[in-house]
Amino acid sequence: MRPKNRKRDKTIIASRLIRRPIQRFFPIFLLPTFAAFCIGFVIPFFWGMYLSFCRFTTTSNARWVGFENYFKAFNDPGFVHAFVYTALFAVTSLIVINVLAFAVAYALTRGIRGSNLFRTVFFMPNLIGGIVLGYIWSMIFDGILSRYGTSIVLSSTYGYWGLIILMSWQQIGYMMIIYIAGLQSVPEELIEAGKIDGANGWQSLWRITIPSVMPSITICSFLTLTNSFKLFDQNLVLNGGQPFVFQPDGSIIKTTEMLALNIYNTFYQNANSRGVGQAKAVLFFLLVAAIAIIQLRSTSRKEVQR
Predict the structure, then answer these.
(1) What is the pTM of this model?
(2) 240: left (phi over 0), alpha (psi -120 to 50) or beta
(3) Contact 218, 300 (CB under 8 A)
(4) Pick from 74, 76, 44, 173: nearest CA to 117
């Protein structure tokens, strides 16, 4: 017993000798990362919050105007339309992407031949940039719709479902990988116990498999929602918010314009409205953060209950 105690004492001493320099010098190693975080995120974030209450063309001539920019943002019919349009798009893409991704993942974990090849093929679209995807799919859609005398930029309905198809084609493979990891972690004992109790395949799926992969559902739902609300480059390239609708007051509403593109257009199309664009960006951040927190809490509760 004595040699074992000596060996344990040596281990304790060695671990202390390792921890002491780490505890003493960790601020030195943490400082570069913390400084980069402050310079790249914290300072620009709070500076942007300040600019949302200012009227400016450049950041050096900002003039405080209070909540004027926010009032203009809420009274902008294009911003309100973009919010409703983005919310509808996010709900549709949430359902379509997660249902199809789970179905593909479930099929590929059934032991079919060539499953690894199929996983690679389904994941590859996620590696392509949004700008490139937008150009590719715009050519595909226009090639199909030209037979019917229309285009992706001439119909709000085609533009909406074109964005859904593009987003689904890009994101399903990524969500599929997360669902596969969750399905592979389901204990086989639970499946066997369900079969012994007389559960068929459909009952095992709903009562055992899906509750067991709730952490994967939480992650995929969070990523899908946030990616849908933040969608920008695909929307810019595929249809640019077209077609346009002219309002009686002379304003223009872009029927397929999403929130990120609306903020971009507000900020860069008119130098005098950059404060309004910055206010919209702050509202956009608060909206996405609130939705993400609500979604995470709701799905996390289901994980605990199940």
Answers:
(1) 0.82
(2) left
(3) yes
(4) 173
